[in-house]
Structure formats: structure tokens, C-alpha cells
TrEMBL record:
Keyword Disulfide bond: no
Name of the protein in its database record: Cell division protein FtsK
Biological process according to GO: cell division
Organism annotation: Streptococcus taonis
Keyword field: Cell cycle, Cell division, Membrane, Transmembrane, Transmembrane helix
Length: 447
């Protein structure tokens, strides 16, 4: 809901008075002139005559003053959600950081007029946990011409110091382009899940919604909304721990069926009944296409639209790891025996699964060291698996890698990521995850 009030204008050197300010002065002068006339008049008749003219002038000036007051520019202000007392107090402190000097000199989000600098309205909101929120600044300057990234850095700079734990992570214009929202969060408090190494280690992270997989304290992957997930990370960056040790086991606890296929035989292939032979991996993909068709037929017969509306149709998590090795192996097989066309079979199967599997409850978790066509999925499958992406280590810091799966976010500041650290962009998981955001994989405490 929007409410209205008059715009604040900060006076500058050589600025002119606004119309209502001018007539405030004129009205005050006419009042004093009236008082002087009363005292300096020699006779009652002369005083009465002059007072009639003076009162008339006062009335006219007052009416003009009311008119000019009503003509002042009204501005739309941003109504924020209700906050707790602690959040409200902190929001007021943050709002005071954005004084006139910061707005005009640092952010340059004011307008210069002959009457002075027009100042935008500012509101601040924080969640009750005091971990994230947004700063709403009225868009009265040329935001469309601004360097968005620099503006976010400048706002973060204003928060530095006492509130340096907060940093701007994203910004956008509101509907109607009336306000700029700078989303910020506590970047010094880790959101990483700490997992104890015991039989019940994953119990605290189980979700009441079986379709939802918790990835960190502030990130939930809703597989019924975004059915496919891509994980890109170099060797020893933490992708296998995230996929096999954490996600696959958590899925089992939440009632999923899990299969882990990898062209490099490892412990998770054995643990989750997968395949490592390239031809057998392709055959498993084709098998799951038939399962998908049967499921879709049952859903159609029941008059439903998705598997979530069906009874006894659990989610299926299909892990395909080391896709770069798989692609290279399939190409070699095709060269040796051109009649097999195993690469075409793989492309057909994985494209079908990625395009339609979500409606049948089949979720592909595609894992590779590189996001390129040669090192990852075929083009169509890559597009279908690009709405939920996790990139760890050097892959997250590579613009060439991000352009394949995080289109539009190739140009980002350089950053060094440690083991298990990187970027995540998962649609359907909240506003901040619609853009690449810092992410840490669950940490297993083996002590």
C-alpha cells in the first residue's frame, strides 16, 4: 500500500526559494505591515481605512500561500511489513546511515533542481532474526542509466563499520519503478549445515515436505517446483560429499528412490545401486524413460496433472556423476563401432528425462567438473537443468563456466572460494536465490 507526503528538498548554494516559501515570507511581511499601520495611524478613521486594505492583502496572500502549499510535489512512500521491536530498532539505526550527504554525494540518487536537491524517500526492513532485509530508496534519479553493480557496492560501503556484517547481495526496481530495493543479509554468519558423523546425523535436516531437500540453513530445494539440479565443481571441491554423502542419503530418509550413476566407479555407485560402465549408464537412462512413460500414463488415467497429486508415487533421484568422462567414453565407443550410435541414445534419453521427468517425479542431479557441452549435458538437457545450479570452487569463480548455466551472470566480481564453497542459483527457493548467491555445502564433523 502506498501513502503520500511532500518531498524533502535540501537547500544548496544559490538555490531559489520555492513558491510556498516565498509566500510564507510575503504573508509574514503583510502581517507586520498591518500591525505597524495600526500603531502609526493618527486617527481611528485613517487606521480603519488602511487596515481594510491590509487585511485584504493578508487574505489574498494567505489564499495564495494555501494554493502554493497544495501544489508541492507529493511522493509515493514504501509501506514495509510489520517488524519485531528488535528489528524495528535496528532498521531505524540503519536508516540513519543514509543521510543527505550519502544520498547526494555517494549514491547520487537525488535530483538537482533550482530549489535545491530533491531527496528520495528511504525505508528499511529486517526479518525478525536480524539476518536479512532490504533498503528501499525512492527512484527519482536515472536508475536505468546507473551501474547496478557499483550501486550495490556503494550501499554495502555505507553499511560498513559497525554494521559490516551486512552486505548487499541483490537489487531490483519495484513494480512501477517507484523504488529501488537493495537486498542485504548477514554475510559473516555461516549458513552451513553441520552434520555429526553418526547413524542419526541427517535426522535434524529432514523436511516435513518430502519433495523439499534442505541444502543449508537458508536454502531449500523444492524439487516439485524446480525438478532438476546441476552441480559443477572441480576435483576435491566438495561435490561428491554434497551429492552422495548428504543429498542422496537424505533423499532416502525422506522416502525417495535413489540411483547413483558415475562413469568413475566410486563408493556412491555401490551404495546406491548405480552403474559405472558407460553403456550401462545409457541403458539406465533409457530404462528410466520407460518408467517415466508408465508414470505419466497412470497420472493421465487418474485425471491428475502431476505426480504430487498421486498416492504412492515417490520422488526418484537420478544422479549422473562425472559427465565429462561419460561423454568422452561414449564418443570413443562411437568411433570404434559406428553402428552403435551410443551417444545419440544417451542424448535422446537424457533430453527426454530432463524435459518431462519432473511431471513424473523423476529428478536428475547432473554432476560434472565443467559446464561446457563437451563436459556436461547436451544442449537441451543443459537448459532444462539450469533453473537449479550449484557451482563450487574454481567453477563458481569462472565467468566461462557461469555463462553456460547461469546465463546473464557471467560478469561478477572475482572471489576465491574454499572447499565446499561457491555459488547457488535455485529458482523457487526465495528471492535472493534467483541470482547467484554464496553457498556452503554441509560440513561433516568426523571427530
Amino acid at each position: 500500500m502506498l501513502k503520500h507526503k511532500y518531498r524533502k528538498i535540501k537547500r544548496t548554494k544559490n538555490c531559489k526559494l520555492q513558491d510556498y516559501q516565498l509566500f510564507v515570507i510575503v504573508f509574514a511581511v503583510t502581517i507586520w505591515v498591518t500591525v505597524l499601520i495600526f500603531f502609526i495611524s493618527k486617527t481611528v478613521t485613517e487606521a480603519s481605512s488602511l487596515l481594510v486594505y491590509s487585511v485584504s492583502a493578508n487574505i489574498i496572500t494567505f489564499l495564495i500561500l494555501l494554493y502554493t502549499l497544495s501544489r508541492r510535489e507529493e511522493v509515493s512512500t514504501f509501506s514495509i511489513p510489520v517488524m519485531s521491536n528488535d528489528a524495528g530498532r535496528l532498521a531505524k539505526k540503519l536508516k540513519r546511515l543514509f543521510n543527505d550527504k550519502q544520498i547526494t554525494d555517494v549514491l547520487k540518487l537525488s535530483n538537482t533542481t533550482r530549489y535545491g536537491d530533491e531527496m528520495p524517500e528511504i525505508e528499511v526492513w529486517l526479518d525478525n532474526g536480524l539476518l536479512e532485509g532490504y533498503i528501499a530508496i525512492e527512484n527519482i534519479a536515472n536508475w536505468e542509466r546507473a551501474d547496478r553493480e557499483k550501486f550495490e557496492q556503494r550501499v554495502s560501503g555505507i553499511l560498513a563499520g559497525k554494521y559490516q556484517r551486512f552486505a548487499v547481495i541483490n537489487s531490483e526496481l519495484t513494480a512501477g519503478d517507484s523504488f529501488i530495493l537493495f537486498y542485504f543479509e548477514d554475510t559473516l554468519t555461516s549458513k552451513r549445515l553441520l552434520v555429526k558423523d553418526n547413524l542419526d546425523s541427517l535426522q535434524p535436516f529432514l523436511s516435513d515436505d518430502s519433495h523439499t531437500i534442505q541444502l543449508s540453513k537458508d536454502l531449500m530445494w523444492h524439487s516439485d517446483i524446480t525438478p532438476m539440479l546441476s552441480i559443477i565443481a572441480r576435483t576435491r571441491a566438495g561435490k561428491s560429499v554434497l551429492a552422495g554423502r548428504y543429498m542422496a542419503r537424505l533423499m532416502l530418509l525422506q522416502g525417495w528412490f535413489v540411483e547413483y550413476n558415475s562413469s568413475k566407479y566410486d563408493r556412491y555407485v555401490k551404495e546406491f545401486n548405480g552403474e559405472s560402465d558407460p553403456i550401462q549408464i545409457v541403458e539406465r537412462a533409457e530404462y528410466w524413460c520407460s518408467v517415466m512413460d508408465n508414470r505419466l500414463a497412470k497420472i493421465n488415467e487418474a485425471g491428475k496433472e502431476k505426480y504430487t497429486e498421486m498416492d504412492n508415487m515417490p520422488d526418484i533421484g537420478l544422479f549422473f556423476d562425472e559427465l565429462g568422462n561419460l561423454n568422452a567414453s561414449l564418443e570413443s565407443l562411437d568411433k570404434v563401432n559406428r553402428s552403435i550410435k551410443i551417444t545419440l541414445r544417451w542424448t535422446t534419453a537424457i533430453n527426454r528425462l530432463s524435459a518431462t521427468g519432473g511431471s513424473a517425479g523423476i529428478h536428475i542431479i547432473a554432476i560434472s567438473q565443467f559446464a561446457t557441452k563437451e563436459g556436461f549435458l547436451p544442449s537441451l538437457a543443459r537448459v532444462n537443468c539450469s533453473d537449479a545450479v550449484i557451482m563450487l570452487g574454481g567453477a563458481a569463480d569462472s565467468a566461462d563456466e557461469r555463462k553456460y548455466l547461469m546465463s546473464g551472470f557471467a560478469d561478477m566480481p572475482k572471489k576465491s572460494y574454499g572447499k565446499g564453497q561457491g555459488l547457488a542459483r535455485i529458482l523457487g527457493s526465495g528471492k535472493k536465490w534467483e541470482v547467484p548467491h554464496f553457498f556452503e555445502t554441509p560440513f561433516f564433523d568426523d571427530n
